[in-house]
Design goal:
By secondary structure, the chain is an alpha+beta fold. The strands form eleven sheets. Strands 7-8-11-12-22-19-18-15-16-35 form a ten-stranded antiparallel sheet, with helices on one face. A six-stranded antiparallel sheet has the order 6-5-13-21-20-17, with no helix packed on it. It has a six-stranded parallel sheet with strand order 23-26-27-30-31-32. The radius of gyration is 25 Å and the shape is globular.
Length: 636
Amino acid sequence: MKYKNMQLNFNKRNGNYEITHKGFSWVSDGRKPYIEIRKKFGDKYIKTIRHLNTAMKKKTEYSENKVVTRYSGFVAFGKKLSFTIVCTAEITAENSVTFSIKAENETGYDIQAAYFPAPFNSKKKGQTSYHVDPMRQGFILPDGYKKNFSTVFGYAHIKRMINTGDAYMPLWGRVCDGNTFSAIVETPYDASLYSCFGKHKAFLNSVYWQSSLGKLSYERKIKFTFTSDGDYNTVAKDYRKYLIDRNELVSIDEKIEKNPNIKKLIGSPVLHHKIYSKINEKSQFYDKNGSNEILCATFGERAEEMKKLKSAGLEKLYIHTDGWGKDGYDNNHPYILPPCEQAGGWEGFKEFADVSRELGYVFALHDQYRDYYYDSPVFDKEKAIKNIDGTNPYCSIWDGGEHSYLCTEFALDAVKQTYTELEEHGIDVQGVYLDVFSIMQGDECFHEDHKVTREQSMKNRADCFDYLNSKGIIMSSEEPGMQLLNKLALVHHGPHALRPQENGEAVGIPVPLGNLVYHDCLMVPWNWFNNWGIPKGEDGDLYGALNAGMPYIHPYGNELKKIGTDNRTADVGMMNDAELKKELARIAPLCELQAKLYNKEMVKHEFLGSYRIQKAVYTDGTTVTIDLDKGTYKIN
């Protein structure tokens, strides 16, 4: 099949594809396409794998720009299965090919997942070839790259769910001597990236399609776009254009028009602090021989500290408050009222909020409507998510101990309950951070009374953001997963992928792939604590400058304190005047830069002769150059 600059070939014998764009060929390589077939065995499900090419019946049909192959007659667990897998490859423009997979005649929960198409690699080895990855902010991985290889090797053997830290965006790409493709997962809600190694020591990728409520159920699609003179910037800009063409990218200016309070973030630093932590004895953080409880400050003490910051000359501030509920951080969700009594209860809480408003600061709260704690006063097992096998999800990592997950059908009602009660008590909430909502794949639920697909789950989460945003509350969440990015004004962080994520070594070569797509749509703070998401030994402020992001302010210093088995920021005792003056001087130019560029597109990122020297270019002509070895940044 051929159309203008594109040619598509399919080998019926082995199921491989070859795509040629302007004479350059990309071919199937690495892991072969397959389906996972499941069977109920007692109370659980077991699975087996069948490669598509092992189907007893295969039929291929060609048209001018399309090839459709039907696979049927699969046998598993001693029986012949009735469904047919339909795989399509179609030239959809002079520079694009779309692949899709669907199932026909699904009669049960037989199909657990599918992996299609096989990854694509350059047919010939290039001089300069690399993979482009959307893990967190993004990285490139040159073929044969050896640094931190054990981590990369591990990523070739796990499924990385889209809309998590493993893949902020439903996107990846590949570059070989300028020949480039971007791959956009057009149906991302039930999808994970699944990587492997191919020829030329290349790290390759394709998609693992999860069933939706037990079935493949709808057609899954990936769009490949090709160019002959591109790089990782091209991959990002292809995706940005795709979103704009579909009216699916909301700029920060559009968000401000809808909620003018977001303007308060312009030129503001972010303060992340805690009030109270109490670790449940059933939490994995609990230390039977250590301290499991800390009151970092009362609400009244925090109010006085905010006055000190104002007196020191800090005009703007976004105050992210953790641990304000009855039993402190990550306890009792989804209902954590009344405010912590040890910190001052309702009266102290109101004082803190009111003082923040008087100072011109944004008083914002950490909150949670996914983790569903057994100790919560509103816990009802019938409202918890139910898995396909009838069990409920279980976790006991966090401070509050044992919990399941709340079905999103009930999330909005829970949000309304909390914020109606806060309003009735006169608490002036200006910002809310709904934890994990933006950075977890949707939660499907099999409960007969409230079945929910992953896609509907994300829409239910979006309703929570919309409800609070309609009240003029500034909305934030943890990290910039694309599926809810249009609902957020800021996130907690959007850092680079490291191993470990805190003060670890970079995975591949970090690039701002995410900000090349959405810099003018979202405010992202940088330099949180202990180099979380910043490669070990490097200065987080340099990355903050490069990305023109909001700086974190650290008026309590960077001291860590062990609570239970976990090291956390101490958040106790504000700096002295001299130290505070120095801290304000550190963030001032970063706040000024963010105020100038918060609504400007990052049009290009490049390395200047070395991966250690980088430059970002914005639409107004501003350039930011950082030197990681010298520890400097320059704004022109």
